[in-house]
Write a structure and sequence with these properties.
Radius of gyration of chain A: 17 Å
CATH architecture of the largest domain in chain B: 2-Layer Sandwich
CATH topology of chain A: Aconitase, domain 4
Largest sheet of chain B: 5 strands, parallel
Strand order of the largest sheet of chain B: 5-4-3-6-7
CATH architecture of chain A: Alpha-Beta Barrel
Order of helices and strands of chain A: EHEHEHEHEEEHHH
Number of strands of chain B: 19
CATH superfamily of the largest domain in chain B: Aconitase, domain 3
Largest sheet of chain A: 7 strands, mixed
Largest interface: A-B, 48 and 63 residues
CATH superfamily of chain A: Aconitase, domain 4
Strand order of the largest sheet of chain A: 4-3-2-1-5-6-7
Bound molecules: iron/sulfur cluster
Number of strands of chain A: 7
Helix content of chain B: 25-40%
CATH topology of the largest domain in chain B: Aconitase, domain 3
Number of domains of chain A: 1
Oligomer: heterodimer
CATH class of chain A: Alpha Beta
Shape of chain A: globular
Strand content of chain A: 15-25%
Strand content of chain B: 15-25%
Structural class of chain A: alpha/beta
């Protein structure tokens, strides 16, 4: 069960590339695991010997700011698992792929989509202190404030540390009724 | 205020996507809560399921409808022959544990599994349709983004994460927000010598890798209707490469003829009833799509990718364009704007995957390779999408064509599409591949991928360089 996520403050790690797909976030050769823990060491495995990963500040970052269309490609949930295990709690981009966004919300990782001017401002200032305020739907950085929208249900679960699985399991009577009506 | 016209409110024109969505809505969505959507068919494989079964075990939950789940081994399986007990000699120990975990989970929960011994085994998106398990109007999910393939049958089929695999195992349902609808209409008649792969690459070149984000695509137009089921699967398969949740083609007589008599298709009276319902599955005239795109395919040349995502695509006769913001991607590929791709030496050719690993694809590659030899500088791997594809190809003698040409004819699996099983492209090397992703490192760390059709891949294998296949196709082979 993820911890509740409300306000996250940290320096930002910036990856300016567009279309960072889940194969790059965690290459397929690390997917033979049957576990979901400990995948942070494989995060961006093919780039870890390069900046910004080699900077000692990288290890403290809880906020990732990435280029457009982050998390496209494969549905592997190993991608948010690896990001969370590394220490990230928020991913900010101007566009985040559908399956990744769904997976992130279920794993204590908040996907934040900003409009392009705000996104460009954050991309241009690596390592700056950023505050992401989920209840207020606000990102604050360098004296500026930017608003964002997030799926209300995903946010409700994240803020309380609730698992959507529990909510779905409570729908059992409706599911049974649906199956009986179709039979 | 006047009363709404009952004619209008009872039957507003709706899209195919909306019809399937409505028929599977257990609980409608609200602003605060996603819909609960019922799942008809759940496909699983070794890579994205172990943690889902662990989540069930942790909560003491059972699989709600094991008869609605089908499992196969495909991603990490070697493409060499297994032993009589279904295990693979020399398999990476961790991959072996993953396969054993799938087997144990399926046994414990009564789920049908196509394992190393099974003659029905193959890539999950090849096996489901060929067994007749994918039905028009159904909802199909799998912990795999290329589940969109099944949309070729007019099913609403999409990839999910492992948490959602657990949700479906336990409840046969998913929490979902309804996607927006998008019409992609192919306009014009494509030349006979371009394939479905060229069509979808051209679509991706038009809409870009995020043009479908948040949408379910319905492919429309005479060029789509003219495709056989295998071509439609190729088309829908790469919907995710445009960011779409799913891709759909309305079912028609081509669909029904393909499904009839397959083991998991409805039989007898049930088939007749199903047909009546399936014939209703189309977008009503006048239904509104949230987004509409037209792609002109008249006079289309074979397409090939030049970059590190499938939207970086061009006609094979063209030169590498200067795409703003993609300079580093071209550098990774070792290419510069203005260069032609034709004539560029390559190291590997891969024919296979859930995009192009079906019988029609192997026939297209064999038509080019028949009576010819692959370049000694090129490693050519032909991997059928399933055992059924392998058997059908061997019955036609295609395996002999490949072997005689100097290509490797392998056992079914994902193989070099994802490079998890020991088949990979070495760093810095170039592959012409019939798979779906040219991402950095997708086919092995540092690998460089040109995505293309089976005919283009085969022609390039012969010459050892990127080659337009049209010179290798005779009248007879084009119209075969
Ligand atoms: S062939 Fe490739 S894309 Fe298809 S299921 Fe296998 S790994 Fe995924």
């Amino acid at each position: 069960m993820p911890e509740p996520l409300t306000v996250v403050c940290s320096r930002s790690l910036v990856l300016p590339d567009q279309n960072l797909d889940t194969d790059q976030i965690i290459p397929a050769r690390f997917l033979t695991t049957t576990e979901r823990e400990g995948l942070g060491r494989f995060l961006f495995a093919d780039r870890r010997d390069q900046a910004p990963w080699t900077d000692p500040r990288a290890a403290e970052c809880k906020i990732l700011v990435a280029g457009a269309n982050f998390g496209c490609g494969s549905s592997r949930e190993h991608a948010p698992w690896a990001l969370h295990d590394f220490g990230f709690r928020v991913v900010i981009s101007s566009e985040i792929a559908d399956i990744f966004r769904n997976n992130a919300l279920k794993n204590g990782l908040l996907p934040v989509v900003l409009e392009s001017a705000a996104h460009a401002a954050l991309l241009a200032a690596p390592w700056q202190e950023i505050e992401v305020d989920l209840p207020a739907r606000r990102v604050r950085a360098a004296g500026q404030e930017y608003s964002f929208e997030v799926d209300p249900f995903g946010a409700w679960c994240l803020e309380r540390g609730l698992d959507a699985f529990d909510y779905l399991l409570q729908q059992e009577p409706a599911i049974t009724a649906f199956e009986e009506a179709r039979a | 205020m006047s009363r709404p016209d009952p004619e209008m409110t009872s039957n507003p024109p709706t899209t195919l996507f909306q019809k399937i969505w409505d028929a599977h809505t257990v609980t409608p969505e609200t602003v605060e809560r996603p819909a609960v959507l019922y799942v008809d068919l759940h496909l699983i494989h070794e890579v994205t399921s172990p943690q889902a079964f662990a989540a069930l075990a942790q909560r003491g939950l059972e699989v709600r409808r094991p008869e609605r789940v089908l499992a196969t081994m495909d991603h990490s399986t070697p493409t060499t022959a297994p032993l009589a007990d279904g295990s693979w000699p020399g398999i990476d120990p961790q991959a072996g544990r993953q396969l054993a975990t799938l087997e144990a989970n399926c046994r414990a929960h009564g789920i049908e599994l196509f394992d190393g011994r099974s003659q029905d085994r193959g890539i999950v998106h090849v096996v489901g349709p060929e067994l007749g398990a994918t039905w028009p109007g159904a909802t199909v999910v799998c912990g795999d983004s290329h589940t969109s393939t099944h949309g070729a049958f007019g099913a609403l089929a999409f990839g999910i994460g492992t948490s959602e695999v657990a949700h479906v195992l336990a409840t046969q349902c998913l929490l979902q927000r309804r996607a927006r609808s998008m019409s992609v209409e192919l306009v014009g008649t494509p030349p006979a010598d371009v394939s479905a792969k060229d069509l979808i690459l051209a679509v991706l070149g038009t809409i870009g890798v995020d043009g479908g984000t948040g949408h379910v695509i319905e492919y429309r137009g005479a060029a789509v209707e003219a495709l056989g089921m295998e071509g439609r699967m190729t088309l829908c398969n790469m919907s995710i490469e445009g960011g779409a949740r799913a891709g759909l083609v309305a079912p028609d007589d081509t669909t029904f003829a393909w499904l009839e008599g397959r083991p998991k298709a409805p039989q007898g009276k049930a088939w007749e009833r199903a047909l009546d319902a399936w014939r209703e599955l189309r977008t009503d005239a006048g239904a509104a799509f949230d987004k509409r795109v037209q792609v002109d395919v008249a006079g289309l040349a074979p397409q090939i990718t030049f970059g590190t995502h499938p939207g970086m695509v061009m006609p094979i006769t063209g030169v590498v364009p200067d795409v703003p913001g993609e300079a580093r991607e071209l550098e990774y590929m070792g290419l510069a704007p203005g260069e032609p791709l034709q004539g560029r030496p390559i190291d590997v050719v891969f024919v296979g995957s859930c995009t192009n690993g079906r019988l029609d694809d192997l026939r297209a590659a064999a038509a080019v390779l028949r009576g010819r030899k692959v370049s000694p500088k090129v490693r050519t791997l032909v991997v059928p999408g399933s055992h059924a594809v392998r058997r059908a190809a061997e019955a036609e003698g295609l395996d002999e064509v490949f072997r005689a040409a100097g290509a490797e004819w392998r056992e079914p699996g994902c193989s070099m599409c994802i490079a998890m099983n020991g088949d990979f492209v070495a760093a810095g090397r170039y592959a012409v591949s019939t798979s779906n992703r040219n991402f950095r490192g997708r086919q092995g760390a540092g690998s460089r991928t040109f995505l293309a059709s089976p005919a283009t891949a085969a022609a390039s294998a012969i010459t050892g360089e990127v080659t337009d296949p049209r010179g290798f196709l005779t009248e007879a082979t084009i119209h075969a």
